[in-house]
Design brief:
Helix content: 25-40%
Strand content: 15-25%
Number of helices: 3
Radius of gyration: 16 Å
Distance between the termini: 51 Å
CATH class: Alpha Beta
Number of domains: 1
Structural class: alpha+beta
CATH superfamily: Glutaredoxin
CATH architecture: 3-Layer(aba) Sandwich
CATH topology: Glutaredoxin
Order of helices and strands: EHEHEEH
Shape: elongated
Strand order of the largest sheet: 2-1-3-4
């Protein structure tokens, strides 16, 4: 699977704090996404409503495996990205040593 195939479809609007937080998280972790602003794209806004039982819930994130997250917390984003292999597993902490 190419990097293009793993690109997340990211529906949101820049006035939304949750959208800005999630975009910042994706940028920080260099996870590719296709930004779709539902305020500028009426078809995208309708797609979000269809996916969310008539609600305009953002951010709505569609992943390459067909899964989606809606208004996810940062911890949920991280968990899902790791599950899909978009984010490396956390590195173990070095052992604690006492300096006597």
């Amino acid at each position: 699977m190419t990097e293009q195939d793993k690109t997340v479809q990211f529906y949101g609007a820049m006035w939304c704090g949750d959208t800005r937080r999630a975009r910042g998280w994706f940028d920080q972790h260099q996870i590719p996404y296709r930004w779709i602003d539902i305020d500028e794209d009426a078809d995208a806004a309708e797609r979000v409503r269809e996916l969310n039982n008539g609600f305009r819930s953002i951010p709505t994130l569609l992943f390459h495996d067909g899964s989606r997250l809606v208004e996810p917390s940062t911890s949920r984003l991280e968990e899902h990205a790791r599950k899909l292999g978009l984010l490396s597993p956390p590195q173990p902490l070095p052992p604690v040593t006492s300096e006597e």
